[in-house]
Please model this.
Amino acid sequence: VSFYTALDSSTIRYGDSIFDFSSDSTLLALGNHEYQDTALLMSMIGKSQFYSKHHDGITYLVLDSQDSLSNIVGAQKNLVQNVTDTITNSSHLVVLTHKLIWMYGDSIMDPMIDSVTNGGGGACFHCLNPNNFQTDIYPMLLAVQQRGVEVVLVAGDIGTKVQYFQYTNPDGISYLASGVGEYEPIKTALVFEHDKANRTLNWHYEELMNLPQKP
Model:
């Protein structure tokens, strides 16, 4: 969100004045630039570092991809298990992360890590670290997809090399990422259109200047 989003309470309040972190409709997936004081950030916006939410027929999973160096373990893994075991009436399951952890270990996406993600692959805190997504998390999501609930994964740690990424794998699971390039003359955002009546979810990338402005 900013270079040091959670540096102190004034920085958090400034971010909240723009993005409305505390709103029930704002879903914030923590990244390395929000990790200065996560306890302070979470207490001020009244949310957890990872959680699930159901709204208008869509279930959302908000995960913390900074925890355990990109590995989804412990309570987070239990959350994914609980949601994927019990999801029934949703048309879609949307999984939000900062890092593109789903690229690691995938035969198509793994070779693209260094050319797509901001931090590239590696062991550093802001890098896309080796992780357990393909071995532990993907099978749970695939089971959901095979039950007729469309799975969409969305991440945000791009922008310095490319501003958007999209790929749908042979299982029908979609991977999306969007980030604003600081020095790019044309900046884009990922926009979703949800048709509740027909239970469809579509998306496209739109120039920021064309989006409705906040009053």
Remarks:
- The two ends are 20 Å apart (CA to CA).
